[in-house]
Design a protein that fits this description.
Blueprint lengths: L7 E3 L2 E3 L3 E5 L5 E10 L6 E9 L5 E5 L2 H12 L2 E4 H13 L1 H14 L1
Antiparallel strand pairs: 1-2, 3-4, 3-7, 4-5, 5-6
The structure holds zinc ion.
Length: 112
């Protein structure tokens, strides 16, 4: 079953992206994301640019045509702040590493 609007739709299928790039605001748009996926049916690369217009808060989500994908990815690479993969990796490191423990004990001290 589709989980809200976060899945990619192609060839009559809903599937999850393999990565999301979180991008800095540009050209009057904010909360910009580039979602990357591969369609399990046709095997095509899927690139979706989601962004919210600052002036009226209207949300836009557009599938980038195959011939424009390379250009869009090259353009947005310089605006990339972090990616979903990096986010997942840093969470893993934090929960297992000593930094996470130090942070936890500091928080505990603050409560008493
Ligand atoms: Zn497809």
């Amino acid at each position: 079953m589709p989980k809200g609007g976060s899945l990619i739709y192609h060839c009559g299928m809903n599937f999850e992206e393999y990565n999301i790039w979180y991008l800095e605001p540009a050209n009057g748009f904010e909360r910009r994301e580039l979602r990357l996926g591969i369609c399990p049916v046709c095997g095509n690369n899927i690139v979706i640019l989601s962004e919210t217009r600052v002036t009226d808060g209207k949300h836009f989500s557009s599938y980038i045509k195959a011939k424009h994908q390379k250009n869009v990815i090259e353009r947005e690479e310089s605006r990339k702040l972090y990616t979903l993969k990096e986010l997942r990796n840093s969470k893993k490191k934090l929960s297992g590493g000593s930094m996470g423990l130090i942070q936890q004990s500091k928080e505990r001290l603050a409560h008493y």
